[in-house]
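task queued by scheduler; priority normal; single chain, no ligands, no partner chains; default sampling; output format set to structure tokens
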Amino acid sequence: MNRALVDTDILSYYLTGDKTVIKNVKQYLKQYELIEFSLITYYEIVGGLLAKNALRQLTIFEEFAALNLIIPMPQNSTKISAELYSVLRKTGKTVDDIDLLIAGIAIENEMIMVTNNENHLRRIPGLKIENWKKK
């Protein structure tokens, strides 16, 4: 099993107690010590919780984040994302910028992106994906 970059949707399912996702996270943690997610996912979750004024959930998420690993967005990941954007735009099969940014991080770090957003993310060349919501 390769290292996994957990996408925002899967992390949200995990934090809200989805049994299938929790089972897959536990399986993953048998091989790896922690969950890895991107700085972009951190932004999405914190932004969503602040918008809902969900301060208790924000505290829980911050504690969870401190125990796991937030992968940064270095310049090379950004360049990979920009190249993906260019390729997809030329083919008319665009993907949301946030998804492209997370994909760039996954590709640079040779990680499998774990997502339930398979339909859109399968368009991204070079991105390996897995769905822990369905397994």
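post-processing summary
- The beta strands are 4-6, 36-38, 69-71, 112-114, 129-130.
- The chain has a mean pLDDT of 95.
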